[in-house]
Amino acid sequence: MEDYLRRNFAVESKRTSEEALMRWRSAVRVVKNPRRRFRMVADLAKRAEAERKRVKLQDWKSVSSLNYFGLNIFGQEKLRIALYVQKAALHFIEGMILNSLMTTGSREVEFKLSHNVQRAGFRIEPDELGNIVRSHGKKTLESHGGIGGLAKEVSVSLNDGVVSKKVMHNEIKVWSSSDALKLLDYFAIAVTIIVVAVPEGLPLAVTLSLAFAMKKLMSDKALVRHLSACETMGSASCICTDKTGTLTTNHMVVDKIWVCNETKTIKSNDNKDILKSAIPEAGFNTLLQSIFQNTGSEVVKGKDGKTNILGTPTETALLEFGLLLGGDFKVDRQESAIVKVEPFNSVKKKMSVLVSLPNKGGFRAFCKGASEIILEMCDKIVNAKGEAVTLSKEQRKITTDVINSFACEALRTLCLAYRDIDSKSNADSIPDDKYTLIAVVGIKDPVRLGVKEAVQTCLAAGITVRMVTGDNINTAKAIAKECGILTDDGLAIEGTDFRSKSPQEMKELIPKLQVMARSSPTDKHTLVTQLRNVYREVVAVTGDGTNDAPALHEADIGLAMGIAGTEFCGKRILKLSGENATAILNTFIFNTFVFCQVFNEINSRDIEKINVFRGIFDSWVFMGVMVSTVVFQIVIVEFLGTFAGTVPLSWDLWLGSVLIGAVGLLVAVFLKCLPVETGQEAVTAEHHDGYEPLPTGPDRA
């Protein structure tokens, strides 16, 4: 039996005959899923068909050869072959001539110029010029007289560029109707090229260039929400920027305070007892109440036991100062119940709160906000003894000078005030007058590193930079001078003065305008509208708050600074972010992809079986590869962030990556359960291992 099989069905490992393959294929064709079993072997039917075509082609060539030598068969084919032979001979002769030119460097054998080349005024054929470029041969170039000789042959001057035929013959002033028709033809050809080429290639070229620009901006931590923003930003001629959080770091601390007619400089290492001893007790308690009661922020304890403040930078700076004075946020808040709150808004530029007084009865209103606005609401002031006295004109002037001196030091100034209200008064509204001034606070917000250099770069590029802020005008001017925005001939104006100007007056002052202080969202929107509509400027607006949303929408391009930046998207908007949200997303996608590959390798252990985990620990090589892949992935993500561009992931993101990768197991099970169509000759009897038994005996084979 073995001799019979070896003699009739022995198949060598390589270069076996088709006859042996056909015998073997015929013997084992009755199997389960023949399409899957023989999907990686040669298709003998196609191979036989290809052999038949090859034999037929050889017979046809033999007939064609006989026809070429005089037999009257296929006359048209004879003509076609003759043309090919002639063309090949011409190419051979041309190649021999070019080879002679390149090797000898002489021009004894020259091309005969065609009529079109001579008519165009050239002295060299395009093919010869192309061969010179391809050959890179020095001798060939020297045979044409070098660069100068070649330039003359193509009618180009090395000094003047392309020289027309009229210039060569001194006929530049002589023009005829035929010359006009030639120019018209040239114009038509140029328009045709533009019409044909530009619609095909321009969209792709523009899209690719904008995509590269977007990628470059992402490396600078700028998230582009519209591709056109990359192009528009390059055309910007004016930038209207906010101050707080854009030009400055938005990390505020109380630097100076004027309370009880004394100015105190605050340092982070100052002892609370020293500050407390410098302020009378009555004034000290009122100051702490105004800080802790009139706030929208919270003081919480972190998991590490440290005190954290949740709120805006200005509120955070005031609460940090209150804690530095030794105050207790929770105790002071529980002493009085809050009755009514008026949150800060950019129009009134103040925040007020009304609280009840449990011991004395009645109510007390606290107010804080823009220094000059709060000062106008006050008719009393806390004196050096901590008592409330009438605010005289002289005292008002002293307070104004203190505010201006703080502002000139680039400090953000706020005033704190309070007013006691009788219990019989209406507690449904918070009053706007007759307050007692407690203190003037100077908050420092340092300028960002590199801002001055960036402003100078914009000015050198012809881009006008204007600061539009809600701060005091002296503070705005000091910051603008420090950043290089405000010059000696520039104009600084307050929002109230700007909005009172007529359209003609605005038209005259806007070109000189460099700083706008105490501005409202409407003022910024009006400025941007005037710049775009009247002066036809391409305006970019930067901002980090919802009050900047109208101007961001009106601008040609809006730049929302940081995660706290407004989500109100303009027509074209960039979002500048120092946070690593994008890096986390990219790392999560990369991590998920790796785990998908891990589970895909597990699925590939046995493509036919559903339980791919059976016997998985029997192969130490496979387990080593799997464990090494997972370990290396953990090391790359958690410890090699600088090298691999990744950031550490939290446990929930790790779990999400693994679960998403494990979905591949379920997909594989579903695909393996799908029935596969078999051939008509397949036997339906099942076998314990999924294969059908081969027929036995020489007759069955």
From TrEMBL:
Which part of the chain is the Calcium-transporting P-type ATPase N-terminal autoinhibitory domain? Answer: 6-49
Which PROSITE patterns does the protein's record reference? ATPASE_E1_E2 (PS00154)
| Keyword annotations from UniProtKB, A to Z | ATP-binding, Copper, Copper transport, Ion transport, Magnesium, Membrane, Metal-binding, Nucleotide-binding, Translocase, Transmembrane, Transmembrane helix, Transport
- InterPro entries named in the record: ATPase_P-typ_cation-transptr_C, ATPase_P-typ_cyto_dom_N, ATPase_P-typ_P_site, ATPase_P-typ_TM_dom_sf, Ca_ATPase_N_dom, HAD-like_sf, HAD_sf, P_typ_ATPase
Please list the residue ranges annotated as the Cation-transporting P-type ATPase C-terminal domain: 578-672
Q: Which Gene3D superfamilies match?
A: 1.20.5.170, Calcium-transporting ATPase, cytoplasmic domain N, Calcium-transporting ATPase, transmembrane domain, HAD superfamily/HAD-like
What is the topology of this protein in the membrane according to its UniProt annotation?
A: Multi-pass membrane protein
One cellular component term (GO) for this entry is: plasma membrane
Task: List the EC numbers from the record.
Answer: 7.2.2.8
- Major location category of this protein: membrane
Q: Please state what class of enzyme this protein is.
A: translocase
Protein's name in the database:
P-type Cu(+) transporter
| Natural source organism | Acer yangbiense
